[in-house]
User: What shape does this take?
Amino acid sequence: MSVTVDLPAEALRRLEAEAARRGVSIDAVITELADTLPAESKTGRRRLAIVGVGASGEGISHRIDEILADGFGRD
Assistant: This one.
């Protein structure tokens, strides 16, 4: 599939440099970057990983700020 993208000069230079460093085409670098993006969601809404924490029977609700600060729920 062919796509035309208008990039800032600096972004193009970075893509070219990375492609040269790896010995691959710019297409390959862009494809790899696109593969790191999340898949399309059927519902269009992200599920909240934190839902229900206040009702926890394990007693962690008093530590929620600490848990969130450590990166819980981040991809």
Observations:
- The mean pLDDT is 81.
- Helices lie at 9-22, 26-35, 64-69.
- The CA atoms of residues 19 and 28 lie 8 Å apart.
